[in-house]
Amino acid sequence: MIVVAVIGVLGAIAIPMFAKARNTSRATLMFADMRTAASAFEVFAMENSGYPANSAAGVVPAGMGPYLGRFKWNRDSPLGGKWNWDFDRYGFRAAVSVTGHAGSPATMAELDKRVDNGDVRTGILRARPNGHSYVLE
Question: Is the pTM of this model over 0.70?
């Protein structure tokens, strides 16, 4: 009985820690993917003297296929939500965003602490006012 109780206590401690580590890993991967996509859009802009036009969330913007390479733009991000390209929209000149549910506010705030200024209202990683999208500008 004691062994079962000890295993139960260890499981109760380990499972939440595992879930937090998994969310942190997914958030880090999402940010890395955002940076990869942002770099692809920058290369496109340099080679074509401008950014591509907007497209619907999850739809590769015209001409971006070769620049995104193996990037899975039409799949959900690691935290959920669709990849989106924002050009001269929502107050952003050029930004890669994830629309829809893209991680909890707490997960994104923790990620922002590690990669930016710790405030999802400012900096390069930002939440839109509706709280459902995160932008890398």
Answer: yes
Q: Could you give the CA distance from residue 30 to residue 57 in angstroms, rounded to a whole number?
A: 16
Cα angle 114, 92, 30 (rounded to 5 degrees) comes to: 35
Q: Residue type at 113?
A: K
Helices (H), 49-137: 65-68, 105-115
Q: Which whole-number Å values give the CA distances from 49 to 29, 37, 65, 111, 133, in the listed order?
A: 30, 18, 17, 33, 28
Give the sheet arrangement for strand 134-136, strand by strand.
82-89, 92-99, 134-136, 125-127
Average the pLDDT over 90-109 and give the result. 79
